[in-house]
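// run 5 | inverse folding | seed 20
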């Protein structure tokens, strides 16, 4: 019993340092020994600096809409997007995607905005918009259609493919994870390898981790032609040697996970 307690303390102390996952693993190793093969390296770099480019920041707006007001809400938000695009050309702010939830949290809309230039540009955009009477009027009208709102500022994982706008008829899956504090580097180390198993059919759309808002949140967004396409693509990943090992390493890092199927709005830049 004393040895187990000592081992547990040693494992807990390693969670606060950056982690390398390159050590070889033999098939005969037990699941517990696999957790101990990682080499621990101390670092003075912030996790966000090691995992991302902090000059590009994304804002994820989550709006829970009154069930009887979805049509009016979408009209209002479309007008807001057009105002920012046409009247605020000096802002380093761009709508990347806009979705309604089809499976998961119903009567919910997600809007993903991109800011180029760091938090300084977010501050400038906020200052500009909050002095625009038309923008403030749209926000006031929109409040009549909402039940609640949430905002997160996100950083993109550097190892994910660059975001590319999609055309045609697509659905998106947002898989959101709440990680144990102190495990973001380990998550990144594993997914830097895992993403290579999911590039064959251009399904990877975006990967983010939270910087402000709910912390230790990760969002992976995938693009598919249909639910059947999603099923076949995910099954193909499991047939790839090495994918199961990446999953085995990341599952212990997760406290909670959440899946939503999304449909692009008519004004979404990516379809």
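// decoded
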């Amino acid at each position: 019993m004393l040895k187990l307690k000592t081992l547990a303390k040693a494992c807990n102390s390693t969670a606060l340092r950056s982690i390398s996952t390159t050590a070889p693993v033999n098939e005969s190793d037990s699941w517990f020994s696999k957790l101990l093969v990682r080499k621990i390296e101390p670092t003075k770099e912030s996790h966000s600096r090691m995992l991302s480019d902090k000059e590009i920041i994304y804002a994820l707006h989550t709006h829970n809409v009154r069930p009887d007001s979805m049509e009016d809400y979408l009209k209002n938000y479309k007008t807001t997007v057009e105002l920012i695009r046409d009247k605020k050309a000096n802002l380093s702010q761009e709508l990347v995607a806009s979705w309604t939830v089809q499976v998961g949290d119903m009567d919910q809309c997600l809007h993903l905005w991109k800011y180029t230039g760091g938090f300084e540009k977010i501050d400038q955009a906020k200052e500009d918009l909050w002095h625009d009477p038309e923008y403030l009027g749209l926000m006031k009208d929109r409040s009549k259609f909402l039940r609640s709102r949430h905002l997160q500022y996100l950083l993109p994982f550097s190892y994910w493919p660059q975001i590319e706008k999609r055309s045609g008829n697509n659905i998106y899956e947002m898989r959101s994870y709440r990680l144990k504090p102190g495990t973001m580097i380990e998550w990144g180390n594993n997914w830097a390898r895992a993403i290579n198993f999911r590039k064959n059919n251009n399904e990877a759309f975006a990967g983010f981790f939270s910087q402000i808002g709910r912390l230790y949140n990760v969002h992976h967004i995938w693009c598919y032609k249909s639910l059947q396409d999603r099923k076949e693509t995910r099954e193909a990943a499991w047939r790839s040697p090495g994918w199961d090992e990446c999953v085995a390493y990341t599952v212990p890092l997760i406290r909670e996970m959440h899946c939503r199927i999304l449909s692009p709005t008519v004004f979404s830049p990516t379809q």
